[in-house]
Each structure stands twice: as C-alpha cells, then as structure tokens.
Amino acid sequence: MRKRQPSVAIVGAGLSGIALAHTLLERDIPFVMFEKASEVGGTWRDNVYPGICLDTAAATYCFPFAEKYDWSLVHPPGGEVQDYLREVARDLRLNERIRFNSEVTECRWEGGQWELTTKDGVSATADMLVMATGFLRVPSIPAFTGRGDFRGPQFHSAEWNTGFDPNGKRVGVIGMGSSGIQITGALSQMDCQVTQFIRTPQWIHTRENHQQSRLERSLFKMLPALGRRIQNAREEKIRRSDPKLLKNGEWRRFPGPGREAAFQAFREDLEAHLKDPVLRAKMTPPDLPGCRRIPLSPGYYEAIQRPNVTIVRGGIDHIVENGLYDSHGDFHGLDAIVYATGFDAHAYFKPTKIFGVSGRELGERWTSGGPEIYRSLMVPDYPNLFVMHGPFAAINNIPIPLTTAEMVGYVTKVADYIAEHGRALAPTVEAAKAYVHWIQSSMDGTIWATDCHSWYKTADGEAILWPFGRQEHTAMLGELERADFADFPSALSEAVRSR
Fold first, then answer.
1. What is the largest CA-CA distance in the chain?
2. E strands of 72-169, at which residues?
3. Options 3.30.70.1290, 2.40.50.100, 3.50.50.60, 3.30.530.20; which CATH number does 147-210+218-339 get?
4. Which part of the chain is CATH 3.50.50.60?
C-alpha cells in the first residue's frame, strides 16, 4: 500500500515558502500556503522604497531549481527580485495552493496534528507546520517623544508611501542601516533637501555594481550555463582582489592577518571616499567591521557629499509638528520623516501564537527563557513544527537561498519519517540545549562576539546567529539523528497501522 504522506501547512509565501513548496510539489506531498498579503514575495513585496536593491550578488540569490543570470545589474533593484519571485511562483502554479489575504493568528497542537486559525476565523489542520515568515518583516520604530505631533508625512521604510513625492521637500531619514543608506542615496539625486540622522555610523562595502549589457542579458537568458560561468568567474576575480571578500569573508570567523587586512581595507575605503576630515570623523564607526551587518552601496559616500544632503551625528531628542530636535539640542525643520530604523529581527513568527503539547505559547517561552531550538529549525514540545531561519540560523555569512535549500531538505527528512512511522517528532530539551551550547561556545573569536549594538544580538548582547561556514551548515542538516528526538502520537498513526 502506498504511504500516506503527511500534510503540510506553510505560513508565508516569500522566498523560503516558495522554496519549500517547490520540493513538496516534486515529492507529491500535500500542502497549503497561507499568505497575509495579496501576493507572494515577502520582504521584496513589502519594501518598495526608492533605492532598494539586492546587496548580495543576484546570481547567488536564485533558487537552485530556477537559476537566473540575466539580471540588469549584479545587485539589481528590489522590484526586479520581486518580479523573479512572482515568475517562479507562477511557473510552479502556486497561486492555486496559496490562501491569500489570510493571516494566521494561532496554531495549536491538538489531536496529533496542527490546528490553524486565521484572522478572519477560518480554520485548517495539517500534520506539519512550517513558519516561513522571514526574519526582517516586523518594522521597529523607537518611541520618539512627540512623534504624534508631526504634521507632515511620516512612515517606516518598509511601509513606504508610494504616493509620497519627495521633490521640493525637506526630508529627514533616521537610521543608517541598509535601508537608510539606500534611501539617502536615492533621495540625494532628487530635488529635495535630505537630512540623515545617524546615531552610530556603519562600515560600508563600496564594491561596484556592474551593469549587464543587453547583449549579456540576452545571452545569459538563452545560455544560462554561460551566464553561470561568466558570473562565477567575475565574482571570483572580485573576491581574490578584495581583502573584504577573501575566502568568502572568513575573516569574520577567524582572527588573524586576514581580519587585519579586511579592517585596513575598510579604513582605506572610508578615507579614499571622504576627504573632508570633519565628515570623515562623523562617518567613522566606533566598532569593528562585521560586528554589525555590512551594507553594500557603490555610491553612498558620494551621495552624502552632495550639497542637498546633511549628516547629523547623534540621536533624536524629540519630534515637533514641523521637525525635530536632535540629542545636541539643535532644531531641524522637516516636511517629511522616514524611519529607516530597522526591524525586530527576533520576532520570527510573531504575532502568530503557537501552542505546543504542554499548551505553552512559544513566543512567551522564548521571551522568558531564551531561544530553545534544535538545528535552528525545530523546537522541543512542538511536534512537527519548523521555524525557517529561526534563532542561530545562517543569515549572516551564507546566501539565503542555499541555507533555505538545506533547511527544506531537512523538513523532507522529517516528513519521510512521519510517513513511515506515523509518529510526530520534536527534539528533546537536552538535544536543543546541546545545540544552543555548541553554537554559543563556538562564537568566541568571531567578529560577531565583539562589542557593538547589532540586530545580530539579543537585548542581552548575545550573538544569535551561525558562527560557522557552508560546509558545517550542510553537515548539520545532513542527517536525521533519531536519538535527538521524542516522538508523539500523530493523526497519521492509524493510517500507518492499517497499511
């Protein structure tokens, strides 16, 4: 008798959700996807601010099953990435499987399966639950005093008002992460006055953004193997000549001459682009390169030297109806404010409430006791639950599509076990603690363990990401270690017994 495959509920139709859906389709595993928005895309759907672009090489950001090399630029604009995701979803006919405008608010383990409830009261059940909700999706805006008094347009970078016209206006940009850098760069080329408020400046990677000619794009579309060879050779040449990229940036993991060479390269880059000593002092970070995520921008340093751009180093004291006062007490008149203040990087699946075997809610459990997780993917007491890019995931030094593919492979290994044995799986508390200890004890010596304020870290200052490389990640998700798991009754049990 043919095995009954476990059913899968996927929450989120961004990059991770699409990657998993592709594999489940290949393996004929039934699934349904829930997406709170009206289309796929995740972060690339939500972030439409001027200047947004992919700050990793596009050739490494493709799905292994849908390679693409005919990008307009090595680091293409966000809209081009969103078009790619739409195209992949269309080719896979995922729209037939996705429940759009369906925000999952609660998931409960009941009767050997997951019960999901959406915001509009619709219920569904599945044997496996995959939270593919992303890790940079919940906007974070500090509680600035007087924010409600401001009379002009104000919005977070991830909630860009597409009807807003910056021309002729005084625009304040608060923040210097990737979005703040990209927005300031784009606005600097418009007919507006830009004031960027920077509490802590960041090191920037200024590598050139190569534009691919029409001929290159046509050739690479017809001959993807040629595109792969040429772009791999181009990337390898850049890596060999740039200390910041040497050996895939291993200086972040290991102290030594490579790290010193990378640090020197960042310092020389800053000095070469900013000749004015006053501006250079404003833009010199107090921490070491790599402790925080390093934004890529080929033109930001040029942008902040344009006459319509002013850099203010320091925090925000309070906001008033026509501007704000900085932490030095100086007033800045503004017509609009953009909060490029980042995200709650540790929100994971929130605000969805997830209740496990014991009835305890997972978000509350992690808030009070720290992130207890196994393989950065599964959680004790929550059978058949997978949190894609969960705590300690490799979001810092390996291309996301590659790590996603390996996580997807692990999900299918668990699915195979469930189909064979009819039992649900959750890691033991001991296995999860051992995994977290292994990660934390391996962080010493890495650049992420140095002292800085970063979304890579918890509120307690502990780095919560992957301290190893690609080889270790592949090995970590290579095998299902049955001894690390407890099993639970599953709704599939009767089907397996009757085979």
1. 78
2. 98-99, 104-110, 113-118, 123-126, 128-131, 154-156
3. 3.50.50.60
4. 8-36+101-138+345-497, 147-210+218-339
- Output the CA–CA distances (angstroms, integers) from residue 105 to 108, 121, 122, 367, 373, in the order listed: 10, 9, 10, 18, 22
Helix axes 15-26, 78-91, angle to 10 degrees: 20
Residue found under tokens 């081009």 = 80
Q: How far apart are CA 279 and CA 158, in angstroms?
A: 28
Domain 8-36+101-138+345-497, CATH: 3.50.50.60
Distance between CA 390 and CA 209 in Å, rounded? 31
Nearest alpha carbon to residue 416 among 389, 393, 384, 380: 384
**In whole angstroms, what is the distance from residue 56 CA to residue 366 CA?**
31
Task: Report the relative pairing of strands 104-110 and 331-333 from DSSP bridges.
Answer: unpaired
DSSP 416: H
Across 69-212, where does the E strand assignment appear?
98-99, 104-110, 113-118, 123-126, 128-131, 154-156, 170-174, 193-198
Helix 214-222 to helix 224-241 angle, to the nearest 10 degrees?
A: 120
Are 386 and 380 spatial neighbours (Cβ–Cβ below 8 Å)? no
Per-residue pLDDT of the chain (499 residues; tens, 9 = 90+): 456 899 999 999 999 999 999 999 999 999 999 999 999 999 999 999 999 999 888 888 999 999 998 999 989 999 999 999 999 999 999 999 999 999 999 999 999 999 999 999 999 999 999 999 998 899 999 999 999 999 999 999 999 999 999 999 999 999 999 999 999 999 999 999 999 999 999 999 987 888 888 888 887 788 777 777 877 777 776 666 677 775 567 899 999 999 999 999 999 999 999 999 999 999 999 999 999 999 999 899 999 999 999 999 999 999 999 999 999 999 999 999 999 999 998 899 999 999 999 999 999 999 887 889 999 999 999 999 999 999 999 998 888 999 999 999 999 999 999 999 999 999 999 999 999 999 999 999 999 999 898 999 988 889 999 999 999 999 999 999 999 999 999 988 654 444 4
DSSP string, 221-265: HH-HHHHHHHHHHHHHHHHHH-TTTHHHHGGGTS-SHHHHHHHHH
